[in-house]
C-alpha cells in the first residue's frame, strides 16, 4: 500500500502538471499586464477575478484576441478543478514518495505552458497605505492556497509593501516581484515604466528644482477618477494644484498604441498649468519579471 502524505506539505516544485501562476496586480499596471499576457503564446488558460475594476482590462485583452474566463475569487478553485496542477496535487503527494518520480520532477522544465489567474485590485487603495497593505496581503494569502507561484504586480508603493517578502515568508507558495537589474523591487509604477529605481533617480535628478508629475497611459486616463475620490484633496493641494509642480512628464515606453494618451496628457497639463516633457521608458522589467515568474525562477534580472 502506498503511504499517504499530507498534500499541503508537498512542495510545488514537485507537482509536475500544468503550472498555475497567480498575479495580484494594481489596476494602474493593467496595460503592462495586457502586454505580457497577450504576447504569451504558451498561455494555456487565463482567469480574471471578477470585481468592479476589470471592465477596461477585459476590453484591452479582448482587443488583442485574448479571451479570459472570469470568476469571483472564492469560485476560482472550483473553476480550476480538473485543470492545471490544482486537481493533481493529491496524486503528486502519493507519487512523490518514489525516487524515480522526484528525479523526473527535477528534470522537467517548468513553464513551457502555464495557466494564470489575475486579481486586479482597485486604484482607490492607494488613498490609505494601511488599507493597501492589508488588502494586498490578504489577496496574496488567499491566492497562494491554490497557486504554484504568485507574482506581485506592485512596487514598494510608498514603502507600504516594502516588507512584503519578509512578512509573508511563511507561505509555502513562492512569491515573485517586479525587480530591476540590481535585484531590487521597483519603487512604484513610474520606476517600472522608466526601467528601474536607478533610472527613476536619474530622471528626478535631471528635473531637480522643478516639481514633476509623471504620467503613464493609465495615470493620464485615471487622474480625474483619483482627483474625485475621498481622501485625495490633500494630494491635489500639495501636488496637482501646487504651483511648484510645473512639469507633466509623459512616459512613452511603447506600451500601448493609445490615441488618447497624448490628449489625456495635454488636458492634464492644461488643467494644472504644467509644461509637457517627453520621457522614453521601456518594458524590460515588466517582461523579465513576468518570464521569471511564469518559469519559476526567483533570480536577479
Report the order of strands and helices: EHEHEHHHEHEHEHHEHHEHEH
Number of helices: 13
Widest sheet, order of strands? 3-2-4-1-5-6
Q: Give the structural class.
A: alpha/beta
How far is the N terminus from the C terminus? 46 Å
In round numbers, the mean pLDDT is 82
How would you name the oligomeric state of the polypeptide chains in this document? single chain
Largest sheet: 6 strands, parallel
Q: What is the CA-based Rg, rounded? A: 21 Å
Q: Given the C-alpha coordinates, what overall shape results?
A: globular
Classify the beta-strand content into a percent band. Answer: 15-25%
Q: Uncertain segments of ≥5 residues (pLDDT<50)?
A: 1-17, 87-111
In helices, the fraction of residues equals 25-40%
- Count of β-strands: 9
Amino acid at each position: 500500500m502506498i503511504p499517504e502524505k499530507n498534500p499541503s506539505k508537498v512542495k510545488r516544485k514537485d507537482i509536475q502538471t500544468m503550472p498555475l501562476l497567480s498575479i495580484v496586480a494594481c489596476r494602474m499596471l493593467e496595460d503592462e499586464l495586457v502586454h505580457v499576457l497577450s504576447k504569451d503564446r504558451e498561455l494555456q488558460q487565463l482567469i480574471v477575478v471578477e470585481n468592479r475594476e476589470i471592465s477596461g482590462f477585459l476590453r484591452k485583452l479582448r482587443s488583442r484576441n485574448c479571451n479570459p474566463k472570469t470568476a469571483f475569487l472564492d469560485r476560482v478553485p472550483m473553476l480550476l478543478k480538473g485543470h492545471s496542477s490544482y486537481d493533481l496535487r493529491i496524486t503528486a503527494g502519493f507519487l512523490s514518495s518514489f525516487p524515480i518520480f522526484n528525479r523526473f520532477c527535477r528534470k522537467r522544465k517548468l513553464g513551457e505552458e502555464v495557466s494564470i489567474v489575475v486579481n486586479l485590485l482597485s486604484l482607490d487603495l492607494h488613498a490609505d497605505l494601511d488599507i493597501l497593505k492589508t488588502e494586498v496581503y490578504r489577496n496574496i494569502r488567499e491566492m497562494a492556497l491554490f497557486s504554484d507561484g504568485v507574482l506581485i504586480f506592485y512596487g514598494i508603493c510608498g514603502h507600504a509593501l516594502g516588507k512584503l517578502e519578509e512578512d509573508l515568508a511563511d507561505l509555502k507558495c513562492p512569491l515573485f516581484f517586479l525587480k530591476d537589474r540590481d535585484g531590487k523591487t521597483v519603487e512604484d509604477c513610474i520606476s517600472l515604466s522608466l526601467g528601474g529605481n536607478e533610472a527613476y533617480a536619474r530622471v528626478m535628478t535631471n528635473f531637480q528644482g522643478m516639481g514633476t508629475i509623471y504620467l503613464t497611459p493609465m495615470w493620464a486616463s485615471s487622474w480625474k477618477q483619483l482627483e474625485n475620490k475621498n481622501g485625495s484633496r490633500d494630494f491635489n493641494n500639495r501636488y496637482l494644484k501646487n504651483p511648484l509642480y510645473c512639469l507633466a512628464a509623459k512616459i512613452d515606453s511603447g506600451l500601448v498604441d493609445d490615441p488618447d494618451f497624448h490628449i489625456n496628457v495635454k488636458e492634464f497639463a492644461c488643467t494644472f498649468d504644467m509644461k509637457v516633457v517627453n520621457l522614453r521608458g521601456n518594458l524590460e522589467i515588466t517582461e523579465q519579471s513576468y518570464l521569471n515568474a511564469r518559469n519559476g525562477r526567483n533570480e536577479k534580472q
